[in-house]
Write a structure and sequence with these properties.
Distance between the termini: 55 Å
Number of helices: 17
Catalytic activity: alpha-D-glucose 1-phosphate = alpha-D-glucose 6-phosphate
Pfam families: PGM1_C_vert_fung, PGM_PMM_I, PGM_PMM_II, PGM_PMM_III
Family: Belongs to the phosphohexose mutase family.
CATH architecture of the largest domain: 3-Layer(aba) Sandwich
Radius of gyration: 23 Å
Bound molecules: 1-O-phosphono-alpha-D-glucopyranose, zinc ion
Oligomer: single chain
CATH class of the largest domain: Alpha Beta
Helix content: 25-40%
Strand content: 25-35%
Strand order of the largest sheet: 2-6-5-3-4-9-8
Number of domains: 3
Shape: globular
GO biological process, one term: carbohydrate metabolic process
Number of strands: 27
Structural class: alpha/beta
Organism: Candidatus Accumulibacter aalborgensis
Length: 547
């Protein structure tokens, strides 16, 4: 039955510019009349050839997910899609959506998420478009979507009631088929094909090994229940906070030492009997790995995964290359050098890894912000990272902290930390970055906080596959001894500006590896303030979040 397409007149909203990972705004902004519709229409207008094709649709279950899904289903029918694969209850983690797009050769996908940002009526909402390779749309596409939002005059929908998404099965909106799929099955099957599940099951069955996975009331609950406690047989109760809630139980579903403090503390308390901890974020693409009284830094984690690839069935044949975002520590570079493989340095954001993965140039990718993944999908993948670690632990039969310490002994330690200054007035943050950029030519050869600066620039990236250029991706200050300080403004926040300062120092001497991170980096913190005038311009004397 064909349905009448309804054209609803609309006018543009300012500021519908996708950031590091899609459009993120307060729920209150998204709830304005025609706001979501305008952006979705701009996506559909930017596409071509979607008639009769398959769209994948789902989200992290945050507040407004359910309403937005129904709106998008109607608009997809009006845009001529032949079929939508939608997760049951509107749920699909970001990596699962990527897996579903790839497995079913969909035209693309829409993921509703604001990742680790707060949820609930006063929290954040977000939407991003992924291409047929399963990865986030590139800048050329998101720029085109933004331009379209600025000239939009109508959106298109059909008159159809809401679809019951609480059970898997099929429904239709006019000629468009709606397949309500199990959000976990395809992703779980893919993960099972990569790792040695028997061996991991053996580890999880050992009485001396106890694991906790904290789903932070976000999307990974159902995935972790099904994979860890289901397929791998971990004891019930291994997964905590495993039911997705629209407001994530009031917290930030951000697996860092601040928001996942409960997990970190449990692993620090020997009475808990826990030997390994892990957590994931709102939409399931980030991971946190915790050993006994030891939080693994994401940059180190990427290096450890690369160094141990031969133990993992999917990667035992060798890595084509590795890639990290520019602010991520250079720990993985050292592993790549030893393996004799390429190490790519990209701007922040997963979208830049896509072309390297598609071209077969890189197998593993990672970011300091707790994102790691591989060529199995085109997003970072939280549970993938946890299973990779479990597979390593099962084969090497030693605790996570020992594995990292041995890694440092072998490769040296890239001591690393990120300092975030949140909610800075946008004008001040822009001024800080502008003045810092203006100062760049004078920095090389000078001393700052007593430290000699070797080089300073604003990171620009040329994609080795398609030659596209991305400018102004973060200011880098490189010291004579190889230490680095990097400055950039967050592209995912929804309130004011967040200044991120990334600090890194290489320590070869094993006797110095246990010096506390912040202590080892203190001279660089002083340099960062001197060079960028953080306190003078923003009035802040210390960061809000240290990770
Ligand atoms: C942050 C992280 C970045 C990550 C992105 C999406 O972006 O820093 O590594 O790709 O979230 O998860 P930012 O807020 O720094 O722009
Ligand atoms: Zn995320």
């Amino acid at each position: 039955m064909s349905m009448k397409v309804i054209s609803v007149p609309s006018t543009p909203y300012a500021g519908q510019k996708p950031g590091t990972s899609g459009l993120r705004k307060k729920v209150t902004v998204f709830r304005q009349a025609r706001y979501l519709e305008n952006f979705v229409q701009a996506i559909f207008d930017t596409l071509s050839g979607q008639q009769g094709q398959t769209l994948v649709l789902g989200g992290d279950g945050r507040y407004y997910n359910d309403v937005a899904i129904q709106t998008i289903l109607r608009m997809a029918a009006a845009a001529g899609f032949g079929r939508v694969l939608v997760g049951r209850d509107g749920i699909l983690s970001t990596p699962a959506a990527s897996a579903v797009i790839r497995k079913w050769q969909a035209f693309g996908g829409i993921i509703l998420s604001a990742s680790h940002n707060e949820g609930g009526p006063a929290g954040d909402f977000g939407i991003k478009y992924n291409l047929g390779n399963g990865g986030p749309a590139n800048e050329a596409f998101t720029d085109a979507v933004y331009r379209r939002t600025q000239e939009i005059s109508a959106y298109y929908t059909v008159d159809s009631s809401d679809i019951d998404l609480s059970r898997t099965g099929e429904a239709s909106i006019g000629e468009m088929l709606v397949c309500i799929i199990d959000p976990v099955a395809d992703h779980a099957e893919l993960l099972e094909s990569l790792f040695d599940f028997d061996r991991i099951a053996g580890l999880l069955a050992r009485p001396d090994f106890r694991m906790r996975f904290d789903a932070m009331h976000a999307v990974t609950g159902p995935y972790a229940h099904a994979i860890l406690e289901g397929r791998l047989g971990a004891p019930a109760g291994t997964v905590v906070n495993g039911t997705p809630l629209p407001d994530f139980g009031g917290g930030h579903p951000d697996p860092n030492p601040v928001w996942a403090a409960e997990l970190v503390n449990a692993l620090a308390d020997s009475r808990s009997g826990l030997s390994f901890g892990a957590a994931s974020d709102g939409d399931g693409d980030r991971n946190m790995i915790v050993g006994r009284n030891f939080v693994v830094s994401p940059s180190d984690s990427l290096a450890v995964l690369a160094a141990n690839h031969a133990l993992i069935p999917a990667y035992a044949g060798g890595l084509a290359g590795v890639a990290r975002s520019m602010p991520t520590s250079c720990a993985v570079d050292r592993v790549a050098r030893e393996l004799g493989i390429a190490c790519y340095e990209t701007p922040t954001g997963w979208k830049y890894f896509g072309s390297l993965l598609d071209a077969g140039l890189a197998t593993l990718c990672g970011e300091e912000s707790a994102g790691t993944g591989s060529n199995h999908v085109r997003e970072k993948d939280g549970l993938w990272a946890v299973l990779y670690w479990l597979n390593i632990l099962a084969v090497r039969d030693m605790p996570a902290d020992v594995i990292v310490r041995e890694h440092w002994q072998r490769f040296g330690r890239n001591v690393y930390s990120r300092h975030d200054y949140e909610g800075i007035e946008t004008a001040k943050a822009d001024r800080l970055m502008d003045e810092l950029r203006a100062r760049l030519p004078q920095l090389p050869g000078s001393l700052s906080n007593g430290l000699p600066i070797a080089a300073a620039d604003d990171f620009a990236y040329v994609d080795p596959v398609d030659g596209s250029r991305s400018e102004r991706q973060g200011v880098r200050i490189l010291l004579e001894d190889g230490s680095r300080v990097v400055f950039r403004l967050s592209g995912t926040g929804t309130e004011g500006a967040t200044l991120r300062v990334y600090l890194e120092r290489f320590v070869a001497d094993a006797s110095q590896h246990e010096v506390p991170t912040q202590e080892a980096l203190a001279p660089l913190v002083g340099l960062a303030d001197a060079v960028a005038q953080i306190t003078v311009i923003t009035g802040r004397t210390c960061p809000d979040v240290i990770s």
